[in-house]
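Q: Entry one of two.
A:
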Amino acid sequence: MPGGPKKRYGQHFLEAVWADRLVNAIDPAGADRFLEIGPGRGALTLRLAPRVRHITAVEVDGDMVAALTPRLPHNVTLIASDFLDFDLASIDAPGGIRVAGNLPYNAASHIILKLLAASRAGISLADATLMVQREVADRIEAAPGSKDYGTLSIFVQLRASVTRLLTLPPGAFRPQPKVHSALIRLAFHDLEIPVRNEEVLEALVRSIFTQRRKTLSNALRRFAEARGERAREALARASIDGVRRPETLQLTELARLADVFSSQT
């Protein structure tokens, strides 16, 4: 057996009964190819492997890699790497890769953003079933006007449909975290909202949401002036009231505002 959890990796290992529930929620099929993020002791890996075609598992903890390797069936490839450094293009396959993982709380947002960037770059990701802190799931699902709505909500909802599958109590893990967790599924899709330049849209969102409590006229000023525009004029061209706040904007409105600046690039 591998050693105990390491705090620096944010490790919390699933109890067996909850690992079974997760695999059932993932709903694997025989032809599926999976990418597993952070297999740890193999709670999901060893349950998924008999039911799928292949798993590529990426694990940062060398002790876990050494302990899990001799236990793995032939259809699992275990790679010792930080997932944030892993080249997703190396496992791209026709029909799409399915992703699964019990994500460390301290890296969950970065991991999700990496998956979104890979999908945007044309890597065939079908879906991702991920365990995250419940508060992160709340942010991902948040609607405009809510306190949780922000950059993560927007970037995920632009590129994926979100479903919450399970909510897990602290007792589902060892050691027990201090928070509840949620299992979510991201079903990746092409950009469904017309936008001229997605990079401009992302830069706009990052900029105005650093000042989300300000009016749009003020929150947009720095971004607009850096592009030779006046914030009030840009908002008028996008038919958006400058007294509103960034957190009230729908995805379609953000795309419309980004297009004002994209026409100048």
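Q: Entry two of two.
A:
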Amino acid sequence: MMVSNLFAQVNLNQNLVAYYPFEGNANDLSGYAINGTAFGESYSTGVYGAPNSAIVFDGTPGSYVDAGTDNRTVVDTLSISCFVRTTFDGIGDIVSKYDPGNDRGYHFQISLGKIRLAGRDGSGTYRQTGFSTTLINDSLWHHVLGVVRGDTWILYVDCNLEGAESNAVSNPDISSNAQLGFGKDVFSDAKYLDCEVDEVRMYTRLLNVDERDSLCATAVYAGIKEQKDPVQFIDVYPNPAQTKIALAGNSTLEKATIQIYNLQGQLVLESTNHGATPVLDIQHLQAGQYIIHATQDNLHLTSRFTKS
């Protein structure tokens, strides 16, 4: 899948109401800036390979994040995107803002290695997507996306549609004044999660197919290099880098078109007509994670690097 096609129509900041990248803290990088308070947490290497960039919950009552009670304008449309890595075979909530007493709210839940989005929308009925067919407790990073679209609840795992339920409801409303919590069920103060969690994003809109794919594809492009055939990757030196990077592949790259994308899917650098081992000037790039895609004849190579 070509990155240039994949990221054609992507704006991951539009209607973003919560963004917790967990880069050594529980700060909210959305416009709401509602920083969470983390308890009993630690941090591990995240999905993009940076140290201390994923939060680790240990499955005990003292390990969770409190992100406040603000509803963030959520009414009847919500998308929750995040990455998880676990071997947990119990029941625990990744994201929870569930308030059954008021028949409102939602929770993103792992149960026996599977995942679902569930909650209440004022109809008097417990709503859910159904559980995923994919087992996500295999110690690998997985991208999960839960969507509420009016009276329909939808689940994607690693870009694939794995659950959907729709029942006619008049004026569905999932707004909730409950605590937004990560790592536990905030309603019952139970179901604590034993899991690594990274890049939690919440939107008050549906994500288009390009946006869905760009989020989960970064796990493929930037996440677990050892699971891919080595021919599908290029090496980047140094990494992290400040001013320049050199690229080395399984073949010479003098005819390759090299593109660098940020994690919002924006093309930030393109290079052609270079040497067999290209050297690229990255001084103008902001600090952060980037994805590299090189195309040469029928060869498509992908890797990632950090600009420090």
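A: Comment on entry two: The first strand starts at residue 16 and ends at 20. Helices lie at 3-6, 209-222.
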